[in-house]
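Title: [Solved] TetR/AcrR family transcriptional regulator 3D structure

Original question kept below for reference.
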Amino acid sequence: MNERWLEELLRINDEEIKLSEKQAKILEAAIGIFSQKGYAATSTSEIAKKAGVAEGTIFRHYKTKKDLLLAIVTPTLTKVVAPFLTKDFVKKVFENEYGSYEEFVYALMENRYEFVKKHLPIIKIFLQELAFHDEIKSQIQVIFTENVLEKFKRIVEHFQENGEIADVPSGTVIRMTMTTVIGFLLARFMIMTDADWDDHKEMNATIYLLMNGLAAK
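Solution (posted by the thread starter after getting help):
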């Protein structure tokens, strides 16, 4: 990681956030330790030591360790959110036209695969802390509803009208698609990391199984 990488991740609503050298070091150190040990098991003194700054410097930038966590996690909400919620992502994936639902799901999976591959340490932090911080969960619900849900529903309903996928509630199709994509990413990057992966072959097989489950009878 480096300062440029952090600034890219910390760009909220396309507004550039400038980091001081010490702030970049603090965030980089926190991301590294949080992703390895988890938030609760990490002390600010450990972060300060790894960053090469005095512990008091952390609290000049972030009032509490929780504020430091949210400084890392909040931008992630606008970039990935498990994993559907970035404006750039919505533009690239949800605002295109597709010849089939299968083609849409492949674009969705491939886009998030590349993102997770690039930003794995912070994705780990996000997933580790999701269950323990209500403010993170509530932000997910708001961002998903405002940025993704209606666009996702329109795509699903379009291919239902064409007879390509089953006539079941669109929310059911969305949930099944999301859990399939997220399950692949979790297995690939966090659970079965030592497996002999042929990533694109596995993506194609995963989507094939999803489509057979959704195919209209």
